[in-house]
């Protein structure tokens, strides 16, 4: 598969211990959107304490299916999910 992807930039401004701003600059061909179910490493998830999910990954296939697979593995192994 010959696929061109671009990077996504995230900027975080910490104003104080209780206040911050996050700016995400995304392009249409964000690499996370190409994550597919076969890329999910079940063994890695099983050894984790938390599974951090990006809302961007839920936007379209195949990354949506990859996230759902990862969440299923996490739930079956008592790994906490964070969105």
TrEMBL record:
Its EC number is 2.7.1.92. GO terms for molecular function: 5-dehydro-2-deoxygluconokinase activity; ATP binding. InterPro entries: Myo_inos_IolC-like_sf (IPR023314), Ribokinase-like (IPR029056). This is 5-dehydro-2-deoxygluconokinase. Keywords: ATP-binding, Kinase, Nucleotide-binding, Transferase. The keyword Lipid biosynthesis does not apply. It comes from Staphylococcus gallinarum. It comes from the Bacteria.
């Amino acid at each position: 598969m010959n696929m061109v992807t671009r990077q996504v930039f995230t900027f975080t401004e910490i104003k104080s211990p209780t206040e911050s701003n996050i700016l995400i600059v995304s392009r249409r061909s964000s690499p996370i959107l190409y994550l597919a179910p076969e890329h999910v490493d079940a063994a890695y998830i099983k050894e984790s304490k938390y599974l951090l999910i990006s809302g961007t990954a839920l936007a379209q296939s195949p990354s949506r299916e990859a996230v759902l697979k990862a969440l299923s593995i996490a739930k079956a192994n008592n790994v906490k999910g964070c969105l």
